[in-house]
Design a protein that fits this description.
mainly alpha, 4 strands, about 75% helix, about 5% strand
């Protein structure tokens, strides 16, 4: 093991240990009694159920992550990256097509492991706690559609990235950045039109008081949209959410059907105002820009790694290749992404508070927003007492109890 291999091993091990420690601390932070601010919505049995749900998911996640980490170490230190490279080169294909096979085989293993964990998560854990509405047919159909979309969209992008790094010299990272930035924007535009309807049915909200209230509020705050739709989220899960998609006047407001069923009209307006707040406060635009900048940094960093012989030696690879460098960089970037996510999650939590403030200021529905958040937390069995360290690492939203206190103070 060379010095670089030792450094990489230390960093990915620290990432694994930090995540494991945070998860264990999160479990140990569970309280016996529900916080006073949510007792009007959470019964004692519902509170205990939310804790059991957290325990089941955390233990399963710990086992899954330990398995993934072990597989990576075994694959690494048995020289399997080189063995796989030898196998791929035996086909005597061009560098790019060899790369597609190499990356494809590794992704296949990753996808199969993800499939097994997803099956257990959906049909055991989610089923046990009453969330799962997914039938085996829907599950298989979703999986096939996802694979087809990856082949149609992801594969050409990977091919292009390999081609750029193979033939475009020092500026390959720049071309990759432009490609991925454009692709992400195009996907955001076409996803609501062509991709999302492949998985869910969208129907227009019927005329009535809710539709009138939504239209009136949107007009008051200058939010233009095309229509309001209900998504059949209940065919997969009993969990609820609301969102909007698209750009400009073509934006669509969408609600899970479970949300329409479980919340009052004023609660729905308060939640919708929060989502519109993200748009009006430019959170979505800023997030898109930051994502594009981040992808540029990633590709630049990749360009520094992808042809470095010392790094290839650390992974027992005899020859430099773009495709193996692609995989190696993914391993190297993982602990870096954890650090970046700490800052991005903090920024996201601030945005959530500001969106709550927007909702309160534009609707006056303070109690309704709080009640909606409590019901969403109850229906989704949210952890009400997350450990601060776990929040620091992983939470994109403030914990519910903190959020309710902030909402209360915002109204003063």
């Amino acid at each position: 093991m060379n010095f670089i291999a030792l450094i990489v091993l230390i960093f990915i091990s620290l990432e694994f240990l930090f995540n494991t420690l945070a998860a264990i601390m999160n479990l140990k932070n569970l309280k016996l009694i529900a916080p006073e601010s949510v007792r009007d919505v959470f019964t004692e049995s519902e509170y205990k159920k939310s804790q059991q749900y957290l325990r089941h998911n955390t233990i399963f996640d710990l086992i899954t992550e330990a398995l993934k980490f072990s597989i990576l170490l075994i694959f690494w230190f048995t020289g399997s990256f080189q063995l796989l490279d030898d196998y791929v080169k035996s086909f005597e294909m061009t560098e790019i097509y060899s790369g597609l096979i190499y990356i494809g085989l590794i992704l296949t293993g990753y996808i199969l492991l993800g499939l097994l964990t997803s099956i257990y998560s959906v049909f055991v854990i989610e089923e046990k706690f009453g969330f799962n509405k997914t039938t085996p047919i829907i599950f298989v159909s979703d999986f096939i559609k996802t694979i087809v979309l990856f082949v149609l969209i992801g594969l050409p992008i990977i091919f292009s990235i390999l081609w750029f790094f193979e033939y475009m010299g020092n500026f390959a990272w720049l071309y990759c950045w432009i490609l991925v930035a454009l692709a992400s924007i195009v996907i955001q535009v076409v996803a609501p039109i062509w991709i999302m309807p492949l998985f869910n049915k969208f129907t227009n909200l019927s005329d009535g008081t809710l539709k009138n209230k939504i239209s009136k509020y949107a007009q008051e705050v200058g939010f233009e949209f095309k229509n309001i739709q209900i998504m059949d989220g209940s065919k997969r899960s009993s969990k609820a959410n609301a969102f909007f998609t698209g750009f400009g006047k073509s934006k669509k407001i969408a609600f899970f059907d479970t949300m329409i069923e479980d919340h009052s009209e004023d609660e729905i307006i308060a939640v919708l105002a929060h989502e519109i707040g993200h748009y009006k406060l430019k959170h979505i635009l800023k997030a898109t820009v930051l994502s594009i900048v981040n992808s540029g940094v990633i590709f630049f960093m990749m360009s520094l790694v992808i042809k470095n012989q010392l790094i290839f030696d650390a992974f027992y690879l005899e020859n430099i290749s773009t495709y193996a460098g692609f995989i190696i960089f993914g391993i190297l970037y993982s602990p870096i992404s954890l650090i970046i996510s700490i800052f991005s999650n903090y920024y996201s939590r601030i945005n959530e508070i500001n969106a709550d403030k927007w909702s309160i200021e534009t609707t006056g529905l303070v109690i309704e927003l709080g009640d909606a958040l409590k019901r969403l937390a109850r229906n989704n069995l949210v952890n009400l007492s997350p450990h601060p360290f776990y929040v620091f690492l992983h939470y994109t939203h403030p914990p519910l109890i903190d959020r309710l206190e902030i909402i209360k103070n915002l109204n003063k």
